[in-house]
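Residues determine shape. We examine one folded chain.
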Amino acid sequence: MRPDLAVCYGQERLPRYTSYPTAPHFSAAIGPETYAEWLKAIPQHASTSLYLHVPFCRSMCWYCGCHTSVVRRDEPVALYASALRCEIEQVSGQIGRRIQVDHIHFGGGTPTIMAPETFTDLMGSIRHSFFVPPSADIAVEIDPRTLTDQMVDALAHGGVNRVSLGVQSCDPVVQRAIHRVQSFEETAAATENLRRAGIRGVNFDLIYGLPHQTVDSCLDTVRRCTGLRPDRFSVFGYAHVPTFKKHQRRINEAWLPDSLERHQQSYAMTNALKQAGYLQIGLDHFALPDDDMAAALRSGTLHRNFQGYTTDASNILLGFGASAIGRLPHGYVQNEVGMRAYLEAVAGGKLATIKGYALTDDDRLRADIIERVMCDFGVDLDQICTRHGSAPETMLKSSPRLKKLISDGVVQLDGSSINLAKDSRFLVRSLAAAFDAHLDGSKQLHSRAV
């Protein structure tokens, strides 16, 4: 543990590096016509992944950083699901063939806000437009507070084999401060019901750095949750950006821990999860030793995309829904963020793309370096630069940030190999930022480094 470094680096705002370049650098220069060209150019035997964004919740959690809105009625959700089915047909039509899909992820918002029959119909549309083999990984994010038995059955029937349950904190004081009161019994019941239906892959999402949170309350949450033995945990630091997420203004900043306290909470939760038998995966994921993600870490095949750490090796991710982001070999695309604009685009028979980014050769080089840093806490620059026809010296000499990290003892340099010191791994985003050529103009949009 390096509290001195937590204080030194902790206030800086940095991306989570689920993509490179990050979304603030997307522009309207990439629109529907470009996306259509990129879809047509997908290689003949490529496989892809799908992300479907469902931007609705029954109530707003004040910590939330997602594009979502509160709905009380089912009709807007049903209308939106119909638009998703149309968009799936439009995109597959541009590809021109029934391409294989090995990973599907439903995110939100709360995807399980859909009626069970709506979810079943949506899965039918996916299978009609794409080839989904039995081995495909199909994941859904879940709010345990609103999960019904009928929805559990629909998930199982649809082939879902992995679920992520939002837990965040088991402390009632913290829960009230973030407007998300959820009993441990609700979490346990949802976990039991999902497993009973045959959905074996269970992930829990936790957060540190929340209002009124303490090291003791973080450890109590870990203790309770590890008793249910989920396969994986995601442990994120709360990103307080009230300028961009107005509902976060309901959180009194005086209730938030400082960088040192956040570091202590993260450190305590990491150690507790390790002691409970979980293997740390990169910055913020943990998995049981026999989990696929742990195997990917050991084999050096772990990857990172918009859902965080993943075993998904595909360089094609098709995003569906309002604000959804996709990636293709040529670059990134993002859909209309506003619900009305998204629905109108799809209803008009147009791709809903509103902006994106065309990758350069330098972007691809830096993206590969940053992914390995985020996954492995280090990188062999010679190996990656050779693959891209570049010289590692160029990367080493061009970054004042890297020089400071080395001089502060955060990073160890051995020839062209760069590795974070073991007691500095919580600063992995700071090392990734040393290779980010686009960073300075977007710092205010990101979360604190610690």
The chain has a mean pLDDT of 93.
